[in-house]
Amino acid sequence: MRSVPRSVGRADLLLADSESTRQDLIELLGVPQERVTVVYAGVEERFTEAKRGADQEAILQRYGIRRPYILGLGTLQPRKNLSRLIAAYRKSGLNEPLVLAGKRGWYYEQLIKEAGSGVRFIGYVDEVDKPALLSGAQAFAFPSLYEGFGFPVLEAMACGVPVLCSNTSSLPEVAGDAALLVDPSSTADIAAGLQRLMRDVDLRQTLIARGLEQARRFTWEQCADTVLSVFEEVLRT
Fold first, then answer.
1. φ, ψ dihedrals at 71, nearest 5°
2. How large is the C-alpha radius of gyration of the chain?
3. Cα distances (Å, whole numbers) of residue 52 to 46, 57, 135, 237
4. On the chain, which terminus has fewer CB atoms closer than 10 Å, C or N?
5. Which residues face 142 on adjacent strands?
6. What pTM did the predictor assign?
7. Is the pLDDT of residue 51 over 70?
């Protein structure tokens, strides 16, 4: 981390994966705003072509998952705010299990203690299985405290799953109006959001439709075009 300010200081131009990250570079490291360009990442096609049917059922069975379920995805560490998500799930009174997928982080043992009934940890998920797990979920919950971009939000949207995510850092920027935004510091707000997402049929259908459209706006072709334009600009100066 000590090398970051030095590297930033030497760069002619910086690429940020979101406007939120761009503002962090400007405000925290004092980078002139004209030296930072936002380049959005893309969503891989495998999420828009998520496995369903027999293939999907086989993958879910391998992880011991039965539908319907709520899915949370990410390394089990404090930044992902899983402790509040678990508390919110318990407060919500929902019967559908909360399935948490991701490799063990340094807060894993404490999360296990907090989980209680209804919460399942399935560990690290192979990348090839992620589309099936996402598309099989009734809802995707991602109340992270901070994200520089937020790939899982767009991946879930591309799979046609309604999303709940935080109203902080880059997530509102990435999600647009296609997710149910909640205050990640409020267990009550997350719980109320989970209840709405699971019980309000009209809201679910609206978010699914908006999510599919939102995910289509983020492509690797567009990302590559933007990076090429930035490189050409640097070479001209």
1. -110, 135
2. 19
3. 12, 7, 8, 50
4. N
5. 165
6. 0.92
7. no
